[in-house]
Design goal:
The complex is a heterodimer of chains A (320) and B (255). Helix content of chain A is 25%, strand content 29%. Chain A is built from eight helices and 18 strands. In chain B, helix 2 packs across helix 5 and helix 3 crosses helix 4. The termini of chain B are far apart. The chains are: A alpha/beta (320), B alpha/beta (255). The interface between A and B is large, with 92 and 78 residues. The complex binds flavin-adenine dinucleotide (FAD) and adenosine monophosphate (AMP). Flavin-adenine dinucleotide (FAD) sits at the interface of chains A and B.
Amino acid sequence: MGISNIWVFAQVANGAPTSGSLELVTKARTFGGTVSVWVAGDGAAVAGALGEYGASKVFAVDYGQNLAGVSVASAMKATIDGGESPDLIMFPQSYEGRDVMARLSVKLGRTVLTNSVDIEAAGDSVSATTPIFGGNTLVTTTFTGGAPYLAAFRPKSFNPEASGGAAAAVQAVSVPDLGATGTAKITAVHVEETTGPKLDEANIVVSGGRGLGESANYAMIETLAKLLKGAPGASRAIVDAGWVPYSYQVGQTGKVVKPSVYIAAGISGATQHMVGMKGSKNIIAINKDKEAPIFGIADLGIVGDVHKVLPKLIEALQAR
Amino acid sequence: IVCVKQIPDPANPGALDATSNTLKREGKLILDESDSYGVEMALQLVDAAGGGEVSLVSMAPNSETAGLRTALAMGAAKAVLVSDPALQGSDALTTAKILAAAIQRLGGADLIIAATESSDGYTGTVPEQIAEVLGLPSVTFAKKVSIEGGVLKADRQTEEGYDEVTCPLPALISVTAGVVEPRYPSFKGIMAAKSKPVDEVTAADLGVTPVGWAGAGQQISNIAQAEARAAGEVIEDDGETFGKIVTFLEGLKVI
Ligand SMILES: Cc1cc2nc3c(=O)[nH]c(=O)nc-3n(C[C@H](O)[C@H](O)[C@H](O)COP(=O)(O)OP(=O)(O)OC[C@H]3O[C@@H](n4cnc5c(N)ncnc54)[C@H](O)[C@@H]3O)c2cc1C
Ligand SMILES: Nc1ncnc2c1ncn2[C@@H]1O[C@H](COP(=O)(O)O)[C@@H](O)[C@H]1O
């Protein structure tokens, strides 16, 4: 039997599937079965891109003013009740992905394995791997009971690779009556402007932490990122302090980045931060405390004051 | 009603129990910092409404109440604690069913608040699962919340920015860290918390079965150490180390 019918929920942002979603389609393809992708919103707009990565079908859910999570989960449930039988449903560990899988897990009475970085099928047994303790330990968990198996994946778990397929066929799926669960309505959508490369796609990331001392000093991080044609990032400490928006956060509850170069300035290296950046090819850390955990994973560590090192570095790069 | 998780102090590195392969949850537990925002938000909403009460629900081993007492000291009125050895190994879905039943035991609420994810388990699914079990609308990742005329208004974090969402009560929200500044319990609050009611129940009292390993649709099959990343060169700044960084970047041909 094995895994032959796979569903992937794709998160769409700015009119395109996120790279985290394309990774899942790529991985789904390796099982050798059919891959169908669910999207919240316009299916036609993404059918080309999804087909290129191996999806044969796109289920598009027009959720109107409803929240996407509950709408897609209900549409999935109705489709399963209508006779479709996915063996595995993969979700990105994203805002909408989390809502869809949580609602669906209750509707189907099935567990969902979250924060996975890998998945394997051996015969009828399906297992997912999750890093814990900041990624130092890998736990493999096997689903018990029958399909469908629900699993959610951290971004950057797989490499997205196009297979050159034709555009996927789009099938619109309507949202069943949601009852009370459908009474939350979206009244306005705000898109935050970003310039420069996206944090989770940039080749170079420069992140600042509490060691910068105050909000105004974050300008040094932005200047440096710009000089290096990279993206600025942040630890949660300064996101919580309101210095920068949440979208800048790197770590367990923020973005996972794997750039060629990651520069951490005034960041201690808490496990929750490191889990989001330790896949970087090269890590440079600047911290005044030589005992800071970040030095344990840095390729180049500078024990020094960010207020001294960063201005000189910026000056040297500007002079080039 | 606020869902509060009691967890081992994150300052101490966690460990897995070698026989059961679950996170060790013994010894003193504390209030998960992520949930202190929910407690504070609930207290502020009750203040703004000019009436009402904040209750807590928690599922924890060994009749642990230390974390609950912290939340009671902040100003919550009472709590239901689900503590039962049978709960060991429960997955997120079972946890959500248990918490939903505990919420019903309190007679439901106008608003249920949880954190977007816990500090030790971080599945991030429990709140939305509770909403589904109870058949309630929900707003997850709420970063700004108010209630006007029985309708909840919230800004919900999204991939591209945020959405403004309205939702009639009763409802469930999950709040991100930093939405409000949690208060420190006062001495008076700490004293008062000692005598506030904590209703301790088992899974059977709530009528939820099966729980624990038996109810979980998953089984741990392997534990391995990840490949460690080796530390490189660490040098003290002498005023010239910026040059080392430039050389390093040049070596990688990124500048
Ligand atoms: C559930 C949960 C999820 C979390 N998720 C995340 C996450 O996604 N991302 C994240 O980043 N964190 C996350 N955290 C928080 C994390 O535990 C840390 O609190 C946070 O990463 C610390 O940020 P920081 O390194 O900026 O601050 P600190 O830990 O305060 O470190 C500041 C560092 O700056 C150094 N410093 C001070 N002054 C200077 C100077 N003048 N020059 C150079 N160095 C200086 C200090 O030596 C120190 O090492 C999470 C926590 C929890 C509980
Ligand atoms: N055992 C528990 N007791 C009380 N609340 C919980 C428990 N588990 C999860 N929660 C709530 O659900 C949120 C998300 O948890 P999780 O899905 O484990 O990341 C937590 O921050 C709590 O608000």
